[in-house]
Amino acid sequence: MRTQVGIVGAGPAGLFLAHLLARQGIEAVVLEARSRAYVEGRVRAGVLEAGTIDTLNNLGLGERMMREGLVDNGLDMRFKGRTIHLDLPGLTGRGVRIYGQQEVVKDLIAARLTAGSPLVFEAKVDRIEGLESGRPRVHYTHDGIEKVLDCDLVAGCDGFHGVSRGAVPDGVIETYTRSYDFAWLGVLAKAAPIADMTYSNHDRGFALCSRRSMSISRLYLQVPASDAPENWSDARFWDELHMRMFDEGRSEIREGEIFQRDVAQLRSYIAHPMQYGNLFLAGDAVHIVPPAGAKGLNMAVADVRVLARAMVGYFATGARAGLDRYSADCIDRVWKTIRFSVSLTDLLHKFDHYSPFQRGMQMAELDHIAGSEAARKVIAEQYVNLSNVAD
Fold this sequence. Notes:
The structure is a single chain. The protein is α+β, with helices and mostly antiparallel strands. The protein has a domain at about 5-70 and about 95-175 and about 265-350: FAD/NAD(P)-binding domain (3-Layer(bba) Sandwich). It is about 35% helix and about 30% strand. It has 12 helices and 20 strands. A hairpin with a 7-residue loop joins strand 9 and strand 10 (about 135-140).
């Protein structure tokens, strides 16, 4: 096949990019190693910032999100039995919307297939070559047949473990990493959620209550990195959640059938530059963010908005200025967004290596936020729209 842009990966970054390009009449082929069912079934966080909401609506693909997504106007943080409430619209003029990443992906896939635009599932990319030439080639296998996609530009949107970043020669990309010695045990439960997204810093560890709908709760507990979902019976999970959320009377958090469990390892990761020759990396391929800030999907959308603009300019005029500064246009935003998520992680989790002094400082910071509208506004502004980019 021959196309203008070869997109590796049908996650949010690749799919949003394909739609942004198609709106400007630019051809793209999306290659995804997994099946459609697998891609649409991947459960990820679903807190959409203002910029992501606007992008989906501007593409004409936000109807189901606006109809079924939940408006979230509050963010709570608990400590020592107290609750800090952040009134997001009151502090920033905007809220966020709860709409699962897998639902966003379903909408993007359905729209692309309805339009008859190329989206090939179970197409495993084996290698990418010619990145320094004007005609990169993406070699992939589909239905047991080795095939080649010729293109002008390649977008690597295939995540942390994908092949795209690995196509860059050694020594070109510098990486920055921070790992954590704990993880998040996450469950989906058939139970009505509490009113607002609520984080809790308890002496036994972090907890989070969020929602996927008015009848489905998404709940998390901080656990050791070596822990496994099967170690947690329903009773053990609910007992620990009530305790960490300071719900001593067990009257606030509704219990229900737990129908999915997973453990997510936490890390921070940045790879820079985000490009090499005619390869441009976006989303999880070049940055991983701790989940406390709910920024992963929003960062990917911000990346491809910058990238789409640069590609449109290139195909319209032949000028590479936008393409050549893609990394420079993204990197400050990436660092700031990850800084926010890391700071929330540091503020809200129990660290075994913390001294009593460090634990006391953590509580003092939460106490300061509770008493300062300015401090709450700083957090709220970053929570609702930190990943956005100007058009």
